[in-house]
């Protein structure tokens, strides 16, 4: 395990940015988001949760993948793929876990090559959460924010003025070596302190207000939950905006569109939201005519459909929807209504 | 690190619209092949392909030709939306993009030795035709074939050459046509497909393959049940809005099944297990 | 507030019991301290969970749109801004006044959870009490008293109509319109921008708009955005492309603001819900300011029988584009350009 | 021969040719354009006229879309207030585009890129003047980069 003094971090950023595109949680106005680091950027490693999840780095909101040109009856197609190598620093355990959930979909056969490429070129550096917030419930989905999350190439912990650094993968080891003496070896005493820190975080998790959420106790099979009457009530306050789906680290539905750029054009895919009325609209009609069906689709997908297909819930308990939904129609409420609560707590 | 993004399932290959036939006022059948010759890919009856007409977009269509037709793919397309409208304006010799094949197929291997009942309405004949031609090209593998087809009027019959000639002349094959409303010079049956099936009173030892407008499918299934068909004997093929064709973009799901990947062909007992949202 | 809450519940119970209304639109409490969300009550017994506290920021008038096609009679609780919104919906012919029973709730402001978090007042919070213009944050072992305006939403600090402008019954006592700001303060943000150079203004707005993730929350929460189908949702026409592209972002925001010009009640809900903190109020207020300057003072939602500024005209109207001609009135150009 | 040489060098590919889209009311401004034409008044070919039944037919979307897809300047021209063929159309135009004009300036679009003016059927001169004026100003400003879609190719 290595360490670095926090006041030397900008040296570290600089060094990494020499060879990679470096994404960091950066403050802009009141909002913190992962953006490309440049000298002088206002890095914020304290905010637990960026507004946008880092999924937009590995699965961009808009991704052009094809350029086309028509000449008479001839059609020319050209594949666009120009992603460079990048590093994302400061990804929290919940967001790291969300990458695995996206992998399940995109790396399932037939493999999404653009996504695969994007994953290959990325190096994920996680950051443990010292102080989980009241809206956090990652623990309910089996995520331990104090540990090195599976899927991170390097994991870090903050302790006082220090940042601890541990490579988790081959990629991570290579970067760690390349950084050379910017990083120092951890001494035994500090290792002990780190262990205490981890235990401290674990204790704090139990006291969080949403700690009792437990999707495992949701009862009923697919059709029973589908036909449940909770949807009749729940959907009514939904405004039909797409905020929950766009800030969600696990939502991955997309649309494919063409842009006519006069002389030639391009095809891109972009995030889409099952909350939007035109999501399933076809020439002959729409199978989901009201917001009830749309709201149901979103939560059924997260808690039932995805689980049936990939043996895992499509939620990581990051709390973004809990905090951001303008009318508090978040997954916590749905899980609770479906009976997903631990009784003993 | 080499990028193999050009192999991505979302990337279409170039194909050429070789010939176009006007079936009805709003349906055209397109023969599509590789720019030189041959099929862009191999497929099985009932599968779909995504056709691209940049800069308008992509849409998914069922392949209406049989895999036994090795020279071209055929698509029968009704002009209903943006992409289909653009396709209808395409001229012969125009290059388009194609990717596929997508979805599952009608289990033609399992059908071997059985009598088959095809029930189609309107443009719903498109996916069935692939199976019909496939079974007729492998005639000895299958038993009696009945084809029930209905449309608004004789003018709305797609593949009328098949309906009036090829299939009628095929051995052990009966074609039963019906139209919705009286039409001049029409000597055949008048009435909706479900009633006609009831009148024809088919024995329930067949496999039924149904495709047509949702409302027709609904009533046909009721009639078939009445005639004694088991749900496991009935197959249908569905369509919902699709974008990726590979079960990732997340909009064509019925419950946990994706029509583009786990469908479009569903056996009715499987369909019964899914939520009613299609 | 606690006293009024009981009064509200009583009103709601009575209204449902007497069948004066079929449904009551109010708020309910979730699991967290700030979590008061819109709720729909049809049964008397459910009224127990009705809540009225410093977090009932959601405007319930917008939900009336859903009921326009039914013959249900609806009781709805409205704050000052919500009442303006209600009037606007009536003016736009989207809600019929006679189907609705309005219960007015004077409101001195709603608390911004973010401001509470910034002040670290949410640690171990068990209860929040309100006493006049102070808020008391109670934890297990201590009480912290904070002047209310320190934690109110920005939009509430600029509130001009804390008391509902229309209602059938008023619950509680009207509040003094203190903290109400005159136009010079209300439009100060707009004026600051107007004084910048063209390039500086562009840089500012480019930065704002490019943050947009196109979640449409600003539109969907807006009581003036009451179209059955929004032009942006027409996927066939593709008025708005789906790509995150700077020009599309600008297109969306300019058209959104422009579509509510003259109908925007300045409730600030769009800025509140924006996850990316885009200064939408500065766009809306620019249009309000221009309407006021060019065509006379107008407050949307004040009078449902008034003509919308962009739906009417006067022969002698001014414009902003001809110079020196009849009726021409040109805004002074800033010197920096 | 040096004259020829310099004139070819001026005409290099980089030279900016502004594209102006002018929405002209059918009854006045479009007729004004006709008159300008028949009077052999010069106005540049870079002005693409789109005929609309009334200036109030022009939606704010149209203006922004023109800017998105290639226009460097946009003109909306209608009958003088009081002269509308449909009696009141241009009174609405006046209010709407007063606001849009200010709004565009407010978000940092150069004032000269969007012009609204009244041009009657008899004002061939004014038509030519307005067109030339906008073109000249836009030429000075250079290509519209602020509102153009980055994917659009001229």
Based on the model shown, name its key terms.
heterotetramer, B: alpha/beta, Elongation Factor Tu (Ef-tu), domain 3, globular, D: 154 residues, alpha/beta, Rossmann fold, four-stranded parallel beta sheet, 4 strands
Short description:
The complex is a heterotetramer of chains A (345), B (278), C (337) and D (154). Chain A is α+β, with helices and mostly antiparallel strands.
Could you outline the blueprint of secondary structure elements for this entry?
The complex is a heterotetramer of chains A (345), B (278), C (337) and D (154).
Chain A: E1 2-5, H1 9-19, E2 21-28, E3 31-36, H2 55-58, E4 62-71, E5 74-79, E6 86-91, H3 93-106, H4 113-121, E7 122-127, E8 154-159, E9 162-167, H5 170-179, E10 184-185, H6 188-206, H7 222-226, H8 230-234, H9 243-247, E11 254-260, E12 265-271, H10 291-310, H11 320-324, H12 331-337
Parallel strand pairs in A: 2-6, 6-7, 7-8
Antiparallel strand pairs in A: 1-9, 1-10, 2-3, 4-5, 4-12, 8-9, 11-12
Chain C: H1 2-17, E1 23-29, E2 36-41, E3 50-51, H2 64-67, E4 74-78, H3 80-91, E5 100-104, H4 113-118, E6 125-131, E7 134-139, E8 143-147, H5 154-157, E9 169-170, H6 183-186, H7 188-194, H8 198-209, H9 217-221, H10 246-259, H11 269-273, H12 280-295
Chain D: H1 2-10, E1 20-25, H2 29-38, E2 47-52, H3 60-68, E3 73-78, H4 89-106, E4 114-118, H5 124-141
Parallel strand pairs in D: 1-2, 1-3, 3-4
What string gives the helices and strands of chain C in order? Answer: HEEEHEHEHEEEHEHHHHHHH
Q: What is the radius of gyration of chain B?
A: 18 Å
Average residue pLDDT of chain B: 92
Largest sheet of chain C: 6 strands, mixed
Query: What portion of residues of chain C is helical?
Result: 25-40%
Tell me the name of the CATH homologous superfamily of the largest domain in chain B.
Nucleotide-binding domain of ferredoxin-NADP reductase (FNR) module
Report strand % of chain B: 25-35%
- CATH architecture field of the largest domain in chain B: 3-Layer(aba) Sandwich
- Helix count from the secondary structure assignment of chain B: 6
Total number of domains of chain B: 2
Give the total of domains of chain C: 2
Strand element count of chain B = 15
Rough shape of chain C?
globular
Radius of gyration based on Cα positions of chain C: 21 Å
Helicity level of chain B: 10-25%
Largest protein-protein interface: A-B, 57 and 47 residues
Biggest pleated sheet of chain B = 7 strands, mixed
Number of helices of chain C: 12
What CATH calls the topology of the largest domain in chain B is: Rossmann fold
């Amino acid at each position: 395990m290595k360490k670095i003094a926090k006041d030397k971090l900008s040296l570290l950023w600089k060094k990494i940015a020499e060879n990679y595109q470096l994404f960091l949680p950066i403050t802009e106005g009141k909002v913190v988001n992962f953006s490309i680091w440049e000298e002088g950027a206002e890095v914020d490693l304290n905010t637990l949760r960026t507004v946008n999840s880092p999924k937009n780095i590995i699965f961009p909101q808009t991704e052009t993948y094809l350029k086309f040109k028509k000449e008479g009856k001839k059609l020319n197609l050209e594949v666009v793929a120009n992603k460079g190598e990048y590093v994302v620093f400061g990804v929290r355990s919940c967001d790291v876990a969300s990458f695995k959930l996206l992998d399940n979909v995109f790396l399932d056969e037939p493999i999404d090559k653009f996504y695969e490429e994007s994953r290959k070129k990325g190096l994920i550096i996680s950051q443990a959460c010292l102080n989980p917030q009241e809206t956090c419930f990652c623990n309910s989905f089996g995520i331990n924010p104090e540990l090195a999350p599976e899927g991170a190439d390097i994991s870090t912990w903050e302790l006082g003025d220090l940042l601890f650094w541990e490579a988790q993968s081959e990629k991570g080891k290579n970067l760690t070596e390349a950084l050379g003496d910017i990083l120092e070896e951890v001494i035994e005493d500090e290792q002990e302190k780190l262990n205490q820190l981890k235990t401290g975080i674990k204790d704090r998790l139990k006291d969080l207000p949403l700690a009792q959420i437990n999707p495992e106790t949701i009862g009923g099979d697919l059709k029973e939950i589908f036909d449940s009457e909770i949807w009749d009530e729940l959907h009514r306050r939904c405004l039909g905006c797409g905020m929950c789906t766009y800030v969600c680290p696990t939502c991955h539905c997309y649309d494919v569109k063409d842009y006519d750029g006069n002389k030639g054009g391009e095809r891109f895919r972009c995030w889409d939201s099952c909350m939007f009325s035109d999501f399933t609209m076809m020439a002959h009609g729409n199978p989901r005519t009201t917001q009830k069906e749309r709201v149901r689709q979103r939560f059924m997908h997260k808690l039932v459909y995805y689980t049936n297909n990939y043996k895992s819930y499509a939620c990581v308990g990051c709390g973004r929807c809990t905090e951001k939904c303008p009318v508090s129609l978040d997954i916590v409420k749905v899980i609770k209504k479906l009976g997903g609560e631990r009784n003993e707590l | 690190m080499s990028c193999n993004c050009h192999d991505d399932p979302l990337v279409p290959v170039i194909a050429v619209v070789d010939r176009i036939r006007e079936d009805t006022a709003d349906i055209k059948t397109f023969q599509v092949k590789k720019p030189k010759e041959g099929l862009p890919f191999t497929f099985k009856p009932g599968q779909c392909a995504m056709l691209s007409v940049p800069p308008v977009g992509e849409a998914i269509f069922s392949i209406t030709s049989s895999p036994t037709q090795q020279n071209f793919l055929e698509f029968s397309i009704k002009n209903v939306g943006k992409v289909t409208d653009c396709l209808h304006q395409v001229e012969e010799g125009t290059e388009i993009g194609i990717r596929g094949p997508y979805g599952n197929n009608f289990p033609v291997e399992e059908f071997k030795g059985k009598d088959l009942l095809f029930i189609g309405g309107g443009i719903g004949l498109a996916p069935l035709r692939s199976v019909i031609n496939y079974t007729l090209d492998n005639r000895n593998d299958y038993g009696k074939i009945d084809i029930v087809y209905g449309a608004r009027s004789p003018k709305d019959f797609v593949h009328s050459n098949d309906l009036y000639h090829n299939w009628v002349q095929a051995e052990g094959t009966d074609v039963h046509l019906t139209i919705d409303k009286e039409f001049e010079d029409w000597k055949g049956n008048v009435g909706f497909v479900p009633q006609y099936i009831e009148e024809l009173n088919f024995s329930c030892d067949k496999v039924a393959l149904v495709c047509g407008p949702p409302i027709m499918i609904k009533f046909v299934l009721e009639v078939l049940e009445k005639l004694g068909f088991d749900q496991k004997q009935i197959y249908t093929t569905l369509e919902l809005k699709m974008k990726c064709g590979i079960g990732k973009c997340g909009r064509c799901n019925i419950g946990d099944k994706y029509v583009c990947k786990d469908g479009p062909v569903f056996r009715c007992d499987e369909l019964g297990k899914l939520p009613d949202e299609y | 507030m606690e006293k009024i809450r009981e009064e509200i519940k009583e009103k709601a119970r009575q209204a449902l019991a007497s069948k004066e209304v079929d449904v009551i639109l109010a708020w309910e409490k979730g699991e967290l301290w700030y979590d008061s969300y819109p709720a729909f009550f049809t049964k008397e017994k459910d009224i127990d969970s009705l809540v009225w506290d410093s977090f009932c920021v959601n405007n319930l008038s917008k939900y009336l749109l859903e009921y326009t096609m039914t013959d249900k009679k609806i009781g709805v609780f409205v704050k000052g801004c919500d009442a303006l919104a209600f009037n606007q919906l009536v003016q736009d012919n989207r809600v019929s006044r006679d189907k609705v029973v309005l219960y007015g709730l004077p409101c001195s402001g709603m608390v911004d959870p973010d401001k509470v978090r910034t002040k670290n007042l949410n640690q171990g919070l068990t209860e929040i009490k309100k006493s006049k213009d102070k808020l008391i944050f109670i934890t297990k072992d201590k009480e912290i008293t904070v002047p209310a305006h320190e934690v109110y939403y920005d939009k509430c600090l600029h509130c001009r109509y804390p008391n509902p402008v229309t209602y059938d019954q008023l619950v509680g006592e009207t509040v003094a319109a203190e903290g109400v700001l005159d136009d010079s303060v209300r439009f100060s943000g707009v004026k600051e921008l107007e004084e910048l150079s063209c390039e500086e203004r562009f840089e500012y707005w480019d930065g704002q708009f490019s943050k947009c993730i196109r979640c449409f929350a600003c539109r969907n929460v807006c009581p003036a955005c009451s179209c059955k189908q929004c032009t942006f949702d027409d996927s066939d026409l593709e008025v708005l492309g789906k790509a995150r592209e700077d020009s599309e972002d600008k297109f969306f925001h300019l058209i959104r603001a422009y579509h509510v010009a003259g109908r925007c009640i300045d409730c600030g809900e769009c800025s509140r819900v924006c996850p990316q903190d885009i200064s939408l109020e500065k766009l809306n207020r620019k249009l309000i300011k221009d309407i006021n300057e060019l065509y006379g003072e107008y407050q949307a939602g004040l009078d449902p029988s008034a003509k919308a500024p962009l739906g009417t005209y006067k022969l002698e109207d001014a414009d902003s584009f001809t110079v020196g001609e009849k009726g021409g009135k040109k805004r002074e150009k800033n010197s920096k350009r | 021969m040096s004259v020829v040489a310099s004139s070819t060098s001026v005409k290099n590919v980089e030279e900016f040719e502004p594209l102006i889209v002018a929405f002209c009311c059918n009854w006045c401004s479009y007729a004004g354009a006709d008159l300008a034409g028949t009077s052999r008044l010069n106005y540049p070919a870079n002005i693409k006229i789109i005929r609309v039944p009334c200036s109030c037919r022009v939606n704010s979307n149209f203006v922004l879309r023109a800017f998105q897809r290639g226009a460097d300047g946009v003109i909306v021209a209608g009958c003088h207030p009081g002269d509308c063929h449909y009696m009141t159309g241009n009174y609405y135009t006046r209010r709407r585009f007063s606001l849009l004009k200010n709004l565009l300036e407010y978000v940092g679009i150069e004032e000269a890129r969007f012009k609204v003016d009244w041009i009657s059927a008899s004002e061939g001169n004014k038509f030519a003047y307005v067109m030339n004026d906008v073109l000249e100003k836009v030429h000075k400003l250079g290509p519209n980069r602020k509102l153009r879609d980055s994917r659009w190719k001229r």
